[in-house]
Structures are given as structure tokens and as C-alpha cells.
Amino acid sequence: MWIEKYRVTEFDSFFGNEKPRLIIVNWLKKWIKGTKPLIIIGPPGTGKTSFVKSLAKLLDFDLVELNASDLRNKINLEGIINPMLLNNSVFGKQMLLFLDEVDGISGRDDYGGLPFLSNILKNADVPIIMASNTKSYKMKDIIKNSKLVEFRPLSSFASYMLLQNVLRMEKRNLESIEQFDIINQSRGDARTLLNTLQARLEGEVNSDSNTGTELGIEECINRFFTLTDISQAKQILITSAIRYSTPKYGFTSEER
Question: What is the maximum span of the chain, computed from C-alpha positions, in angstroms?
């Protein structure tokens, strides 16, 4: 899948959100004990997770990444995060703790996940970056105790540059009208753009795809399990209405 093949891993290869990314770079470079944690809020497909990984690599931080939505409650968060904070220099590098999908942490009081996280943010001895797809009310305490940086959907120009880069890497051509159609369909989501572009360039498996209509989930599953050709099965997944993600641990909060 091209969303993995063209996942950005190098710091200087991102498209869009230049100002927010510069804010994050300066925050991490100037971080000292007592600095507020940072939270990145923006829709899927804007490069939040990939950018944090590339920045840690660039500045030689020991990145510890957790999918917060999979931990959800105080017991799980406490059992994993506290030992990390107590042993943050084991590897001889400054540790950077990255908590992805914090909006997936349970807001129920009896789970205690959000209050616990809000508390450790006030006393962290290591830089902490969080990422969230939404700015929900249940996260008000986390946002209050953090530096907020917002990522926007990719602009049409950034989407165009990304599309041109992939076309160049694939050594393929596409009519301008088709390029603009893909950009409009993606609505600033890089993953949607890559999926749509891959489907367009690798050919569609049926007339539904040629009209731009996505296969429903039920129809996608039925067709997938009747195919014996792996390339056709791959195309079914690409042109389906199912939205994919690749969290480090388990399912995302949206998939639950």
C-alpha cells in the first residue's frame, strides 16, 4: 500500500503545515525541565505522527511511542509511563515520550486515565508530545496544561506537491484534470490522496471504481473472499469505503 511505501520518514520531506512544524522544532530544541508538554491537534492524514518520529531522529532523541487510546485507563497508563519516567536516561540519550491518539483515552471518571495524564504533564522530567485528531471537551485539562499546536488539512498546493513527488518516484504520468480530481477528493488528507492515486494508476477492478464510486464494506468483504488473484484482492481493498490506519498497538479509538 502506498500509504506505507510513501510514509514520510525524513525531516525535510514533509508537505504542508510549515509554521506549526517550526513551532514544534523550536519547542523541542529549547526544552528544559518545567517546560509545558506539547499537544498536536489535527485531522488524520496531516503527518502528525510521522513528523514527531522524524524530529526525534533528527535531534537524536530516544523516542518512546505509545498509543494512548489503547491504554485508556489509569492503571494501564501508570504501569507503563511511570517506569519510563523513572528510567529516562537508561540509553544515554534524552528520552522523548510521544503519546498518540490521546483523544481515545476514556473520559469516564472511574477509569481515571485523563486525570492521571493531566497530573504527570505538570511534573514531567522529560519532553512529552501528544497527538490528537480532535479537540474534545473531555481533554480541556490536558490542553490547559500543554502548549497547543494545530495541524490543518494539507493545502491544495501541498497536496499537489505530494502528488507530483509520487508520480516522479513511480515514473508515471497523469492528466492534469485527473490530478486535480484526486486532490479535491482527498480534502487535505495525505493518506486518502495516496490511496486514490494508487487506485487510479494501478487500474480499477470494475466499473464501480471507474465512476469514482467506493465499494461498501459488505460488498468489499464479499468480493475479497471470492478472489484468487492477489492483485485483484489488493485493488478491492484500495477502492473500498473502509478507512485504514496503522497504530502501533491494536485498534484506534475510531475502529472500536
Answer: 59
Question: Cβ neighbours of residue 181 under 8 Å, at least 6 residues apart?
Answer: 212
Decide: 128 and 35 in contact? Cβ < 8 Å.
no
pLDDT single digits (tens) 207-240: 344 444 455 555 566 555 545 556 556 656 665 5
pTM over the 0.85 mark: no
CA angle 128, 47, 147 (to 5 degrees): 35
What is the secondary structure of 27-88 as a DSSP string? HHHT--TTPPPEEEE--TTS-HHHHHHHHHHHTT-EEEEEEHHHH-SHHHHHHHHHHHHHTT
Q: Where are the beta strands (DSSP E) in the chain?
A: 38-41, 62-67, 95-100, 128-132, 147-150
